[in-house]
Amino acid sequence: MDATELQELEPSPVEETPSNSKDDYFGDQNVPPQPHAIGLSQHSPIWYLTRIQKYSSIAFTAFTTAHIVNTSIIPLVTQSVPASEPYLLLTRPYYQSWPIAEPLFVIAPLSVHIASGVALRLYRRRVNAKRYGAETRSEKKLFSAALWPKVSGTSKLGFVGVPLLLGHTFINRAIPNQFPGGSSNVGLAYVSHAFAKHPLISAAGFTALISVLVFHTTWGWAKWLGFTPDQTTALGVERQLIKKRRWYIINGVAGAVVALWMAGSFGVVGRAGEAPGWVGKMYEEMYQKIPIFGRWA
Description:
Elements: H1 19-26, H2 45-78, H3 81-91, H4 93-96, H5 101-132, H6 137-142, H7 144-147, H8 153-174, H9 188-197, H10 199-224, H11 236-267, H12 277-287
Helix pairs in contact: 2-3, 2-5, 2-11, 8-10, 9-10, 10-11
């Protein structure tokens, strides 16, 4: 072909690519991810683990809300532990009468929530190892600080909350089940007796448990709702103002919930005094089975 027959053309920018070839070249952006052979869409494990962690928190949040109502709001309204006990007993059949109800609606979601959080950290470490080219154990050890993802404040509260929650479950479920009647003997009077006999330990334990779990839950839901300070899309000075405002709002909500919970638990239940007669003696026998602290019961 003669050079004189060639025609000079201007380069075509991306947005002017002919419509009949655009989809072939760039792929159809509106087509959802195609499923694999096993029926799963082509999302990364992080996508699945994040959603597992998110949705598993719904059941436990609902349980915690009901628990706040039973152990704080109702005692605040009645100003009496004996008058509040029947309301606590009304909700128990929903998660204790059916043998697998409590494991299914409380223990399982909580376990899945914790496991998915740990799995997320392990998978992100694996991704970082590939990014840094760390394949051998010595290389991973060399880049150890860089490989592990940063632990957020919410995650730190979660890690602290796990042993506190396990201890609470052990004291209120495992130990009473060793006695006639099982956990049906445990109510608000069980807590009142503990405050009367061991005020410092009880106050410290409940303060730590309530504060850690409420702040963890509040910040966690703020993240799921896209409301944490770092999730703002604003820029410049406005970004700083919004971040500060959100920080105060989230902590304010968490602080208000903690104050409400403590008002009923400490102000009413914690001041109700010792349980009378054989019930009080049984409670003291239960307290003696608490590791470490039981020796002072």
